[in-house]
Amino acid sequence: MNQLLLSFQESADMWAKLIAKLEGWWYAIILRLPNLAVAIVIMVLFYFIARGVSVLLRKILRKYLGNQSVRRIIIKVVFGLTLFLGFFIALGVMDLDKALTSMLAGAGVVALAIGLALQGTLSNTFSGIMLSFLPKIKIGDYIETDSHSGFVHEISLRNLVLRQTDNHFVIMPNAKFISESFVNFSLVPRARVTVTSRIAYGSNLHDVIALVTKAIADRFEQRENEGVEFYYLEFDDFSINFMTRFWTDFINKRQFYAAQHAAILEIYDVFEKHDIKIPFPIRTLDVSDKTSRLFERNNEDLK
Question: Which of 76, 157, 173, 224 holds its CA 20 to 30 A away from the CA of 36?
Fold first, then answer.
């Protein structure tokens, strides 16, 4: 009987402590309601401040920073830092500074675990930041990698998006792209185009050099320290092969193909005008008399 009374007394004491604790929390919440309201107002205010700062910063960066991807990264970072500052102030208003310290300590451990679990994603993120600040590539450039080519459409924190010439989009993880070599056709306004062809044996090689060089130079303006180059390459089985190189304006593959197309037309017209032959392979079939009679017999059977 005494044990039963003791058990009831312990239960009553426990409930009394629990009720007292809940009442303390309730009164604490009631007392902190004004602080909570002020904290909410501060967070909302800093959200609009962050948006306003982002809009103003976007207008300023458009004037002084041409790289669109870098502008996006800077605006996102400033927006996040502004919100984080508002969050700090709101916690200070609610007297939760010590709680914030504990949260940050725990967040460090959680961040380490997340970082180990998401190594690939974080690698893409840091690669995206590197690409955004890389001066050798920007939005609108035409690039060619080992497997894809196209115009840089977007550089995000995870992917690089290429718009191909057929208007299809290639989405490449930043880490994969930054580990590969690539050619940026848009870095320089002028580059050299190479065209190869052949002439028949018996042609006047010196005349061919003069005619082709003049035709290309008349069609494509060559600037200082530039010029049309002509080289014979080899004696082939049925032709003498050559190549010509010249400088022209192009910053993407379409302009490259257009220049190559125009050069081929110029060379062909010159060859036609001066009766210079472009040979092609010829195969001679030697048919024996026995095989010939067999063909004739088959034709008679078909009739």
Answer: 76
